């Protein structure tokens, strides 16, 4: 991820009105437009009034790399493929995704010592080649399906018990 991003840039001092604050707040409105006019990004910035346009443009353009990192994490590490029921599980999923992306990025840095043009996608292809998926026979697939069904039933049963306990407590307080 190196190189420069060529864009049109404008920074305008505006006053933001917030219902929780009694007076309008002066902020920068940063506008970045791709040279081919395909994409326009807007953001507010509370930088000091004497901040240079170069600094403001750099800060606004750093959004690109953050968005790119999220795209890579979605495609390569399944960041958007979660099915969780609580925040704790979501945090576990995100932590594993971040660890996976760290590992892939470290492998990329090592791989670039051999071949400069390697990408994150290339590293994932190499990892998939070196660590192929586990080959399963029909019986092991059937056992997995049956175990998943049993676990779902246990989970539902446990959840229903918790609901009943909550209802009993609620009735006791009323």
What does this structure look like?
With 174 residues, this protein is of the alpha+beta class. Among the domains are: 61 residues, no CATH class; 57 residues, no CATH class. The protein is built from four helices and three strands. A three-stranded antiparallel sheet has the order 1-2-3, with helices on one face. Strand 2 and strand 3 form a beta hairpin. Helix 1 crosses helix 2 and helix 2 packs across helix 3. The longest helix is centred in the C-terminal third of the chain and has 36 residues. The protein is flat. The protein starts with 6 loop residues before the first strand and ends with a helix.
Quick structural summary:
It contains 4 helices and 3 strands; from the N terminus they run βββαααα. With 174 residues, the chain is of the alpha+beta class. The N and C termini lie far apart (61 Å).
Write a concise keyword list for the protein shown above.
single chain; 174 residues; alpha+beta; 3-stranded antiparallel beta sheet; 4 helices; 15% strand
What layout of secondary structure does this protein have?
Blueprint: E1 7-16, E2 25-34, E3 40-45, H1 53-77, H2 87-111, H3 120-130, H4 138-173
């Amino acid at each position: 991820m190196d190189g420069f991003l060529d864009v049109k840039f404008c920074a305008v001092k505006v006053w933001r009105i917030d219902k929780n604050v009694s007076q309008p707040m002066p902020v920068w409105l940063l506008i970045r437009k791709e040279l081919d006019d395909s994409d326009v990004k807007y953001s507010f910035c509370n930088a000091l009034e004497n901040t240079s346009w170069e600094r403001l443009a750099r800060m606004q353009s750093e959004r690109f790399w953050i968005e790119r990192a999220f795209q890579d994490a979605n495609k390569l590490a399944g960041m958007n493929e979660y099915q969780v029921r609580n925040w704790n599980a979501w945090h576990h999923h995100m932590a594993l995704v971040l660890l996976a992306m760290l590992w892939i990025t470290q492998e990329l840095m090592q791989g670039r010592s051999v071949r400069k043009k390697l990408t994150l996608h290339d590293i994932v292809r190499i990892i998939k080649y070196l660590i192929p998926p586990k080959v399963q026979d029909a019986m092991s697939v059937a056992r997995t399906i049956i175990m998943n069904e049993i676990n779902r039933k246990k989970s539902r049963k446990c959840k229903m018990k918790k609901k009943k306990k909550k209802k009993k407590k609620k009735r006791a307080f009323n």
